[in-house]
Amino acid sequence: xxxxxxxxxxxxxxxxxxxxxxxxxxxxxxxxxxxxxxxxxxxxxxxxxxxxxxxxxxxxxxxxxxxxxxxxxxxxxxxxxxxxxxxxxxxxxxxxxxxxxxxxxxxxxxxxxxxxxxxxxxxxxxxxxxxxxxxxxxxxxxxxxxxxxxxxxxxxxxxxxxxxxxxxxxxxxxxxxxxxxxxxxxxxxxxxxxxxxxxxxxxx
Length: 204
Description:
Layout: E1 3-9, E2 28-34, E3 41-45, E4 52-60, E5 66-73, H1 76-84, H2 88-94, E6 101-112, E7 115-126, E8 129-139, H3 146-159, E9 166-167, H4 170-182, H5 189-193
Antiparallel strand pairs: 1-5, 1-8, 1-9, 2-3, 2-6, 3-4, 4-5, 6-7, 7-8
C-alpha cells in the first residue's frame, strides 16, 4: 500500500464529518479483532471471515505519514508461515503477550482530488469496557495531499475531545487503548510516533 496519514481521537459528537465529500456515502461496517503486539506490526482477524491480516510498518516520515506492507491469509497457520519469514527482530516483537481487542467499525470513504479520505467510527471492547473513538485517514502521494491534509487535520482537532489526536496506525492505537484500560504505565507508542505536526513534504 502507498502512503497513509492516520489519527485517532475521542469525538465530541457522533454525527460530524471531517470533509463534505463524505456526506451521502454508503458506510461499510464490520468488527475486527486485534492482537496488539507492537506498534510496528499489526495482526488482526478480519470481520466474520477466517481471514488473518498481517501489517508491517516499512517507513514513517517526520510528518506522521506511514507506509505499511499488508498481507492477508486464510488462517493463522498460513499467517504463521509468513511470520517465520520475517526478520528475527520482528519475530521477537510478535512473541510479546497481546490482549484481544474487538473493534467495531463504521467506515466512510471518498476521493477528494488525488486523496482518499476515510472516516471510521470505532467501538472498542476491551476488558469488559466499551469506548467510542474515531479514526481519520488520508491516503495518496504526500505532496498532492498536502492541502486536503491541512483541512482534515483542522477538522479533526475541532471534533476531538480537548483537541487531542493520536497519530499513527491501528497497531499503535490498540496498544495505547489497552494500556489506558489496564492502567499500565510506561511510554506510550503514541509518544514514540510523535505529534501530529504536518508540513508540506518535498516528495511524492
